[in-house]
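Quick one: structure for this chain?
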Amino acid sequence: MKNFIINPAAKNIELRVRIAIDELQTLGWDFDTYHKNTADAMSISIEAAEQQNLQNYIAEISLKGKSGSVKTDYTWYSLSRNENTEYKATGDDLQTIQDIIGLLNNGELNINDNWDYTTNESGEYVPTFIGN
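Got it. Here's what it folds into:
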């Protein structure tokens, strides 16, 4: 197991990650409203709607801001349409970052370097998270 942290050299953070909805639910994220809305729209049970959502969507989480004041938001990414729904604040920026670090530490998440635009004070790319 690695021990990831936010890179101390990171000053302007901009990163996107995609995480399975069920992994986030396991971490305590509440998507019941989404499942209920899907159930109502499709006239199916909430359980069936949840399964449909888990099969058709993943969460895309964005981190943006200066080191020490990073804001996080998320959207549901449609696997079939290759598009995002609208972004919504996660509601707890620090916990979201801790969730991402936990997934990295457990080897359950890999950062796509193409979605990491974090820079240092000089404006040069540095990875958002580093681990040892």
